[in-house]
Amino acid sequence: MWTAKDDQPSDALGRTSTNSEVVLVDGQGLAPASTPPTIANLNVTKSSRVHIGPKFVSVTQNLQNTEVVKGRLLGLELVSPKGSRRLRCSVAVFVCWAFLVASGLVIYLVAVALPRPQGRLDIGLKVPWYLRRGDWQAMPPYSIDFLDLPLSYVIVGHSAANFCEQMYECIEQMLVIQQDHLRRGLNDIGPNFLVGGKGFVFEGRGANVFGAMVTSWNVKSITIMFMGNYVNEFPNQEQFNHLNILLDVLVKEHVLVPDYTLFAQCQVQPDTVSPGRHVLAHMDNFENWNSYNRSGCLNR
């Protein structure tokens, strides 16, 4: 029911006063808005660093629409404008030529001028009866000198020591011969190749190494030694057959010229026995044997 009190303002809603600067809303007071301060008069005495009013600064700057890329190559400065983006032609040509010259010089030094390390030539003979230095456990040489290939001569001699027919027996004999030659100051086993009974062929110094068997002939020949004393021992056909195979391989590998000449050691060192009368009697088994001065060989 409506009453007269309903038209009266409630204290809960707030009250106003014409004499007060504070207004209550929902029980909270609101301060009146503040007026910004104003300066009417300003007195400055004896000061030169005071400026009143806006101040304008003039800045002058020159802009150039160019991007400069700098670098250093071979001591030269490279400049590339943004618009063209190209190197100076003279620098580019110089760099290209310098690179080509340097590359050519390196190739020449590696391929031609620098000496290549030389090693013992492997003739590539892979048969059960051919034994390389590693197969018979050769000791390293004290020194090594290489031949100027191809060669024109082959000299055949004998060891004048024990004869052997079995492979391990011949290996033992090879070591004995090498030790004897080292003690005699030969720096290694003397001949380039040796052949034992039953046709076992051993790599001595090797196909391209300066031998030490016949003075004045070592520099121009391949030296081959029959293992044994063939004044008394008799060679077998396998020895000659396998030596002929070896000689053919040496020609193929350009160690020997195709028309090489083969001599017995006593033919080039007269009044000596090597390779023994029983080997000398079968020298015609070698196609390139030359019988010159055969009379200089002793038969005893």
Architecture overview:
The protein has 300 residues and is α/β, with parallel strands linked by helices. The protein is rod-shaped, with a radius of gyration of 54 Å. β7 and β8 (201-203) form a beta hairpin. The strands form 3 sheets. The chain has a 6-stranded mixed sheet. It has a two-stranded antiparallel ribbon with strand order 1-2. Strands 3-4 form a two-stranded antiparallel ribbon. Helices cover 22% and strands 14% of the residues. It contains 5 helices and 10 strands, in the order ββββαββαβββαβαα. It has helices at residues 89-113, 167-183, 237-252, 265-268, 277-280; strands at residues 23-25, 28-30, 71-73, 76-78, 130-131, 151-158, 193-195, 201-203, 221-226, 256-264.
What is the C-alpha radius of gyration, as a whole number of Å? Answer: 54 Å
Please indicate the percent range of residues in DSSP E strands (runs of 2 or more). Answer: 5-15%
- Largest sheet, order of strands side by side? 5-8-7-9-6-10
| Helicity, as a percent range | 10-25%
Flag low-confidence runs: 9-20, 66-70, 72-76
User: Count the helices. How many?
Assistant: 5
Write the CATH fold name of the largest domain.
Lysozyme-like
What can be said about the biggest beta sheet?
6 strands, mixed
Number of strands: 10
For the terminal residues, how far apart are their CA atoms? 168 Å
- Backbone structural class: alpha/beta
Overall tally of structural domains: 2
